[in-house]
């Protein structure tokens, strides 16, 4: 008898654990991922690990090199900028649609997120702020109901996990981004599609500036 996770449950658990380890900095770009080590660490089978790595490779988080195994894929600052430019176009679409079709429950949740973000900044609770940031973007995409855009954004966001988390925790960043997030919330909750798109564009333009500022100097 075994208590190891197998099948779809093991596959999903390993993939989520690797994403979280990347956010936390426990895994870094270029780091090798050894199937046996991961199976032991996550108490699952090598088959589940292999399938999870294939899923992560499809998301561009992991790179599988023939005869050399898997490793965390390195994303350059320039690639991160280009990904964010694509995100901006899709998230503007989603925000515009969300402003027109969000339910009252979704609008109420957006307002709660805004209040919680204000409190997180006041308390210096940066990890809580980062989680709220993620939920805000997810909720706007959900409310927009644009499934093709949602799927494309999921794929684009995979390689950006590390960049997004590091930017969110940069000193002073939450206070800087708070007004941008509140502008998105106000526009979507207030049913103003064009203001929602402008607010998303302004926020992600600022993210691009922050990414470029983080590039190593020659």
TrEMBL record:
Protein name per its UniProtKB record: GntR family transcriptional regulator
Keywords from the UniProt entry: DNA-binding, Transcription, Transcription regulation
Transcription among keywords: yes
SMART domains attached to this UniProt entry: FCD (SM00895), HTH_GNTR (SM00345)
Keyword Heme: no
GO MF term (any one): DNA binding
Domain HTH gntR-type: 8-75
Source species: Streptomyces gancidicus BKS 13-15
Pfam families cross-referenced by the UniProt entry: FCD (PF07729), GntR (PF00392)
Transmembrane intervals: none
SUPFAM superfamilies per record: GntR ligand-binding domain-like, Winged helix' DNA-binding domain
């Amino acid at each position: 008898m075994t208590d190891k996770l197998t099948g779809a449950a093991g596959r999903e658990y390993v993939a989520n654990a690797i994403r979280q380890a990347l956010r936390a900095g426990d895994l870094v770009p270029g780091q090798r991922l050894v199937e046996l080590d991961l199976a032991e660490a996550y108490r699952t089978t090598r088959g589940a690990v292999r399938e999870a790595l294939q899923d992560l490779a499809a998301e561009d988080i992991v790179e599988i090199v023939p005869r050399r195994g898997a490793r965390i894929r390195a994303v350059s600052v320039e690639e991160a900028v280009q990904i964010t430019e694509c995100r901006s176009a899709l998230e503007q679409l989603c925000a515009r649609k969300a402003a027109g079709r969000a339910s009252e429950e979704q609008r109420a949740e957006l307002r709660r997120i805004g209040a919680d973000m204000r409190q997180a900044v006041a308390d210096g609770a940066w990890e809580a702020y980062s989680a709220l940031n993620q939920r805000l973007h997810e909720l706007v995409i959900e409310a927009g109901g644009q499934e093709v855009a949602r799927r494309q954004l999921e794929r684009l966001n995979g390689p950006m996990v590390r960049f997004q988390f590091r930017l969110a925790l940069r000193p002073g960043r939450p206070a800087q981004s708070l007004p941008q997030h509140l502008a998105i919330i106000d526009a979507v909750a207030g049913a103003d599609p064009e203001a929602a798109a402008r607010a998303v564009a302004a926020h992600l333009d600022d993210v691009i500036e922050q990414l470029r500022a983080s590039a190593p100097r020659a």
